[in-house]
Amino acid sequence: MDQVAVGSRRPPRRWVGRIGPTIVLVACGLFFVLPLLTMARYSFQNVPTILLTWSNVFDKWSFGSLRTAFDDPRLWPTLWLSLRLAVGTVLLTQALLIPTALLVHLKVPKARPIVEFLTLLPYMVPPIALVAGVAAFFRPNAKWFLNSDFSLIPFYAVLALPFTYRAIDAGIRAIDVRTLIDASRSLGAGWGTTLRRVLLPNMRTAIVASTFLTVTVVLGEFTIANTLLKNTFPKFLYEYFSQQGQAGTALAFLTIVGTTLLLVLLTFATRRRGDRSTPTIF
């Protein structure tokens, strides 16, 4: 009985060691949540900050500022352009990075440090320096390229490289790519079928994560679009905020919350599917 009692004893909870991580998590949560609450109050409550007290903290809330922003005729064309740029950037990024990451992983693993260094270059080169150098070359030689709104797509693909490549590379490392390819090839599938029906379904979470990161870059980039005189949504948001402070803040708040909710939904959707299934072949 004594042995059973001793064996059934649970080790004491090391709650002291959890205080530090808990404090860090709470501090990070407050760091992100408090500015959002401030934005929401300024955007949707028609009470001046100097007159705000606990007695009127729930008074005069409305979505009138959002209606004002939605009524602006410049909003929808710029948003539509940014969405098209996001789709084009996602397609270009996935078409370039998925084969590159697979090639590095399967054929030339020694080149991985070089590829990772190259994908970090957008961190080192400021966007204004990038667009100034490229514009100086293309304006006299290929002015037709810069005249198109879709000329922003290559710039956005470069800016998203530090995020998208690592998301895709992590997805490839999470599965046994070589075994899946060998099994698919032994069943008679070609490289196209193997990529489409074997690798891409098992890389679904990584592709979704890289896609979201790319869209976030496109919807938040201002410097390049402003330098090249493109009327994108971030540029409109900057100009509109200088004209309508409350409505511009409300529109920015809606953009942040919308993209965050989209990330949460995509994360839960891919996680549920990934938990139910294992790496599949056909």
Please characterize this protein's 3D structure.
The protein is mainly alpha-helical. The chain is 77% helix and 0% strand. It has 15 helices and no strands. The termini are far apart. The relative contact order is 0.12. Residues 274-282 have low confidence and may be disordered.
Q: What is the gist of this entry?
A:
The chain is an all-alpha fold and 282 residues long. Helix content is 77%, strand content 0%.
Describe the protein's topology.
Blueprint (H helix, E strand, L loop, with lengths): L1 H7 L6 H30 L19 H7 L4 H32 L5 H8 L1 H4 L2 H15 L1 H5 L4 H22 L3 H10 L4 H12 L1 H17 L2 H5 L5 H11 L1 H32 L6
Helix pairs in contact: 2-15, 3-15, 4-9, 4-12, 4-14, 9-12, 10-11, 12-15, 14-15
Question: Which keywords apply here?
Answer:
282 residues, mainly alpha, MetI-like fold, 2 domains, 0% strand, disordered C terminus
In CATH, the architecture of the largest domain is Orthogonal Bundle
Largest sheet: none
Estimated share of beta-strand residues? under 5%
> What's the CATH superfamily of the largest domain, by name?
MetI-like
What share of residues is helical? over 70%
Rg measurement, Å:
25 Å
Number of domains: 2
**Overall residue-averaged pLDDT value:** 80
3D shape: globular
Question: Ends: how far apart?
Answer: 55 Å
Poorly predicted runs are: 274-282
